Amino acid sequence: MYKKLFTLLFAVAPTLIFAQDKGLDEKINDWFMPIATAWEGFVLATVPIGSYNIPFVVILLVAGALFFTIYFKFPNITKFPMAINTVRGKYDELDHHESGDDHTGMSIDGDVIGTIKDESQEGEVSHFQALATAVSGTVGLGNIAGVAVAIALGGPGATFWMIVCGLLGMATKFVECTLGVKYRDVDADGTVHGGPMYYLSKGLKERGFTRLGKVLGIVFAVLCVGASFGGGNAFQSNQAAVQLSSLMNLEGGSTGVIIGVIMAVLVAIVIIGGIKRIAKITEKIVPFMAGIYVLASLIIIFANINYIGDAFGLIMNGAFTPMAGLGGFVGVLIVGFQRAAFSNEAGAGSAAIAHSAVKTKYPASEGVVALLEPFIDTVVICTMTALVIIFFNINGTDMQSVFAYGGDGNSNVILNATGEAIGGVDLTSQAFDSVIPGFSYILTIAIVLFAFSTMISWSYYGLQSWKYLFGKGKKADMTYKILFLIFIVIGAGATLDAVIKFSDAMILALVFPNMIGLFFLFPKVREEMVKYVDAIKGMKA
């Protein structure tokens, strides 16, 4: 199967690389833009509240996150120390057990035979590996390009609402990832299948809503496959291609496609290995690339420490009294929440797929680990990116603003001071380069790694959903992986505006079936949390 996959990729690559049609990127974009626009309009349908038209999905996200935060007594604060200790392995002995006979040296597909029984009971990866895989799916170009789009379109005030969304999203992530572990399916060989499609169908069946659970599970799986093609794939390859093209001064109508084909080949090498190989890759890549990015952000923040008060002043003032032309207070709130939701995916349920594979007897243990994701992703990294961009626009060139807040008013296009369109990743790159000359080269490496790790994580999310829909056979796997790789090329060849419309809508569409399920099943999370807390108390006694 995999020989066929690589044969297809390497057969297509030369044709695209040596193509004489310099408008290939443009043709892909012309085909893709109407689809993206139509889908965005459907998912982001608004409801009138007073004088404002607010996307219903944003209302659902905010209401759900606020409810879970209050119901679970602010787990984003009270459970934070427990989350750190769980990731550190302080409570690992709760999951220790006998592994059966020791068949030294014998293995199947890299698994020691004596441990296969354990994995069938408890999962495939550690708490840290599950967190790293899930974080790699969320900490990506949404933090680099997405934040730039939020600040440019919504002004500095959008930062405040991104932080609020991140803090509230911690509770939602806790709920959905606890359920992901509780209702997962485990094959006899230890392979785990989990995520919202499973807790929607199995959990709602327990509550007596069998038909509703089946429908919601199928709807989620279909949308998750689409999201894996969009936000988890096309957006990542698009911004990586933009950054590489800009850095190397590559021109030509097929440049994006060529880069997309190369990235598709590299992704294919990893995704054929399944969750264990993905986890091993992400647990190494994520800390490395996040460390580089955070360090550079801190350097810029300290270099502009004299402006820190001005920056936070702009953030707070812009959050409640936004500048003219930004759509008013609710407009800025929507931009902030929408970009934060795209970045940390709390409420979308996607991360529950990765967390479901964890080795644990206590579902709530992974729920508390998962609440760290929105904090790392949005509260820390997105805020750092926002400050870097705000500093950049405060300083400008000869003290002139680099770009005008509000964009072109009609799309996700960012305009510089001379009215020229610039991409989200271009803006962030310029901001870093203004303080750390030449950092755009290092940022390019980070961007490619961010894109790469996000794509391989989302390939796992999409594949699990595909298997839920079409079965667990090799042909079904092959079909999905080919489609996934094709969308890497499509994303690299399209424009940011088209890709971000499609990606936003796909990620946010997951909220509808997922949040319905969470509202039915959150009492189960409370039961699991009590079990885990009691187990920890018993261990300490």
From TrEMBL:
Cellular compartment(s): Cell membrane
Membrane topology: Multi-pass membrane protein
Keywords: Cell membrane, Membrane, Signal, Symport, Transmembrane, Transmembrane helix, Transport
Pfam families given in the database record: Na_Ala_symp
Signal peptide boundaries: 1-19
Keyword Membrane in annotation: yes
Domain of life (superkingdom): Bacteria
Transmembrane segments: 52-72, 215-235, 255-273, 285-305, 311-335, 368-392, 439-461, 482-500, 506-522
Residue runs in coiled coils: none
Family from the record: Belongs to the alanine or glycine:cation symporter (AGCS) (TC 2.A.25) family.
Name this polypeptide is given: Alanine/glycine:cation symporter family protein
Organism of derivation: Urechidicola vernalis
